[in-house]
Amino acid sequence: MLVVGTLVVGGLVWRFRRGLSVGIVVVVAAACQVPGVLHTPITSTDAYRYVWDGRVQLAGHSPYRYVPLDDALAKLRDPVLFPGLSPEQRSGVSGRSDDPSQSPVDDPRTRINRPGVPTIYPPVAEAYFAAVALFTPWSAGTLGLQIAAALIAIALTWLLAVQSPRWAALWGWSPIVVLEAGNAAHVDVLAALLITAAVITTARRPRLAAILLGAAGSVKLLPLLLLPAFRGRKPIVAVSTFIASYLPHLLAVGTLVLGFLPGYLNQEGFEDGSSRSAILALLLPPEARQLVAAALALVVAAVAFHRTRTDPIALTCCWLYGAALLIATPTYPWYGLPLIALAALARRPEWIAVPLAAYLAYASYGHDTRQGLIYLAAVVIVVTATTVRHRVVADSGLTGHPLPTNTGGRDETHRPRNLGRTRRAAP
């Protein structure tokens, strides 16, 4: 259904490309978010952890210090988050453990996933959770976060629509965005907003762009992979912003600020060498997979750094983020939300094949070969579309950049020199 819905949205965007306005795109995007907000989260239980982290912070505690089941926080329990454990009951848990083997993903007493380990989310994400919790009654559960995520998705639609209403619809009307923002309330939608704002502002306000990128990295770590696309002093400012966001928590809890990150990396196979990389798993043994994945990542980063001299930053960020997902092949589809925004900004809809592949891989959990083939199909789609576009552009005599170089501007084409009449490049 997601594949069909995405294709339908793509068809509508193409059909009404000349009749869309900023207002129409934003209003329809807002309407699209309503069904998701009215239903409890479907794709994951992450939103319950967000609610808990926000509540813990408002109570004056650090989510990096305590695990949700810890009896020290028993007074913060409610029937929504802990249907099987009242504040008066003892869970038997005291202290924290980062050993994933000692912490099952689910516990029947709570809706919070991994309730035996501390949070994994970086400080800006935690600040966002606390801000939403401040305005959300306990009885509302995840509703406050769902509304906040929907509003962020709508705000990002407007930001993209100011650049191009036609391409903004690719984000705002996407069934993936509806499912992972208004419904599942995944914090990745906030990262998508910050990344997009960083790309758009990088030419006129480079320092602000760098701060926004650093903040995005402090929502989810993945945006830091875009550093090679930002030239000059911007990467330094971005990394400084990222580090600065951790300092208050570092002073409060010390090394506990890492939360469940080490355990998560172990679960995903990054510590023992058997990392995800489902595509590489089709050809390589676990001991070689991590090394090859790291080498590929370095090559991609080097190419991105070189291409920023000539290519629009939106385009570089799009394929860089997409390539990172294809190398790591995470089974969590919501990781692709920033990629959808970047695909809309760069006018490269083929990259949406990657988050779509993540859904199919998510449904094929435990079938490693099938997951690898699914992601490989996404690679074929991206490479084929890119090749066809380059051939069309070469035949037309135009450049292949849909945006002015090194900006997030609004122009759709470049006019070649000495060309008698204007022709549009392939979208």
Automatic annotation (TrEMBL):
The keyword Plastid does not apply. Residues 416-427 have a biased composition (Basic residues). Keywords: Cell membrane, Membrane, Transferase, Transmembrane, Transmembrane helix. It is found in: Cell membrane. Residues 84-113, 398-427 are annotated as: Disordered. Belongs to the glycosyltransferase 87 family. Pfam families: GT87. This is DUF2029 domain-containing protein. The chain crosses the membrane at residues 143-162, 183-203, 209-230, 242-265, 288-306, 313-335, 372-388.
